[in-house]
Amino acid sequence: MSAVKRHKIGVDIGGTFTDITLLLDDGTIFSHKLPSTPDDYSKGITEGVREILSVNNISADEIEGLIHATTVATNTILEYKGAHTSLVTTEGFRDVLEMRRLRIPVIYDLRYQKPKPLVPRRLRYEVAERMDSSGNIIRKFSEEDVEVLAKKLQKDGIEAVAICFLHAYANAEPEKQVAEILSRILGPDVYISRSSEVLPEIREYERTSTTVVNCYIGPIIAQYLKSLSDRLREIGLKCPIRIMHSAGGVMSINSAIHKPAHLVESGPAAGVIASAHIAKSVSYDKVISFDMGGTTAKAALIENGRPAKTGEYEVGAGINLSSKLVKGGGYPIKLPFIDVSEIGAGGGSIIAIDQEGRVSVGPASAGAMPGPVAYRQGGKEPTFTDALLTLGFINPEFLVGGEFELDAESAREALRTRIAQPLGKTLQDAAHGVLTLGVATMTRAIKAVSTYQGRDPREFTLVAFGGNGPVVAAEIARVLQIKNILIPPAAGVLSAAGLLFSDVEHEFVRTIFGSRKKMDVKTLGEIFLELEADAYRWVENEGYAVNDVRFRANADLRYSGQAYELTIPTDHKHPNIDKLYSGFNREHEKTYGHKSDTDPIDIINLKLVATIDINNNRNGSRLQVKGGYATSGERSVYFGEEFGEHTVPVLSRNELNINSRKGPFIIEEYDSTCVVPPYCKASLDPAGNILVELEEML
């Protein structure tokens, strides 16, 4: 009797396309792209999964797992379509959400409007309770008062309740007791989150904001994941479904429903994980991942095979940042995140001219519907994709290997009448100007994770992917003086492929807030043992074997009096305070350009990351895609005034080899297009990656 084949599926939904990848048990990857279905993303996912299984003659019962990255959490916040949410907090702290922090992203904009709170003031309620910073109860809440409040919430039709008491990180019991009372009266249909469970750390504003976000998106995520599970079961898929979280690991559906704030930016994390896997396989120590799709461009830093992480993120700003230098534009979520900088510049970004004659590319997007003018779905406003098509950078007839036809003439006409003629430019110069402006916008995302973090992008290799990343990668690298670009196989679906290489991961945190005088190795060791016990309980609840878990420990440190910390790795079995302090000083100098060997240092949080490897066939597999298409021919491409117009050959990846080929030429694949301009040369490395080198930088 032959062994049952066990395969995996990765699903990544974007603003324009949904990407499906199928990993066979022999390490081969198949891919499929189809338009996203924003009215109900689960419809497009189910259809894509059905199609990729059918085309490859694989039955649903041969699939051992499906891993999904979703934008539903982020979109719910951006579109203000979350649950009818209430906040229950300590007396005197009702307006924490309104007061925020004294930071705005645009200092000199007198008309700046801060984001409106996700919970309006009339739905924020106070409870007469108080603890000190050690968790000792000073004033116990009244159960009768909480019962009265619960009935009021019930009358108001509240769908979700966030509970956030001032010092709940030090003592979770009061929040637990209030949650039990509310749950008993409100019933199981009302979603309840406790700050002591979502984020047991200091800083009442960040903790309150994170808990509110968790509640605001909780019912929507629960409904979406239930709908997705039901639809997949209808086509016979009964395997476990795991969801990518923002730190680059995966979690079960139950965990995702319980802590949905972890899903914000889950999609971008998958591409970074894949980039780290690729960089490690070809021994690149310093890499910047660049992912450009239909709606946004995203960048992340990878050093020594590990993506840079951050403990705070803002969603809802014009550029979603974790940078410590740009804050206040969105809703803070103080959870583990891969440090991804995201900006509203993608293939669907709308090109517009304002009343003063200034041209902009994004952040407004045509999305999946109606999409660019070339998509023939009713779009009237020219987009970045229409400009790329006009320049000849992308195929003027179709995308996705011929499955998605384009209307080049309509795209050119829209760009001519709405942009070129009003500016008094030729069509080609207008299109190249749009490219230059778009590239300038995208470089902000890369600078946010490199220059703003004390890293020189010239020392890094750019890994470009997404449907449009390889198209513009050379232009971006030239602006930033980056020498080398790596275009991996399956570049257009790399985020979906990255899901297939992700581990189960969860972080456990304990706030200690101790100076060197108060802290010793024994205390640190005892706290790490408590965190380890918490992690083992979580592993058992998730259904994994305790022996399969491995740990990684970190500590958050800062100079006394500072407002923010840096995260430094440590050994949880044998913590060394002197090494922690010296490591902090080094990282502070690298990030901010200076350090102090004399100022006192505080340890604020201890963190333990539990990881379980669920990818037995990952290390032996190469990221290569079957089912692509061969292409050949040539087309006219305009590279701007400096290099002019060229008739360039259009090749497939297989036509390259280890010997460099001088540009200009274009490499066309099923899921993406790579443009090699006249100032570059390209070759194929042993792992199948396209290596693009900028000759003028060598």
TrEMBL record:
GO terms for cellular component: cytosol. GO terms for biological process: glutathione metabolic process. SUPFAM superfamilies: Actin-like ATPase domain. Residues 207-507 form the Hydantoinase A/oxoprolinase domain. InterPro entries: ACX-like_C, ATPase_NBD, Hydant_A_N, Hydantoinase_A, Oxoprolinase-like. Residues 516-686 form the Acetophenone carboxylase-like C-terminal domain. Residues 8-185 form the Hydantoinase/oxoprolinase N-terminal domain. Pfam families: Hydant_A_C (PF19278), Hydant_A_N (PF05378), Hydantoinase_A (PF01968). One of its GO terms (molecular function) is 5-oxoprolinase (ATP-hydrolyzing) activity. This is Hydantoinase/oxoprolinase family protein. It comes from Sneathiella litorea.
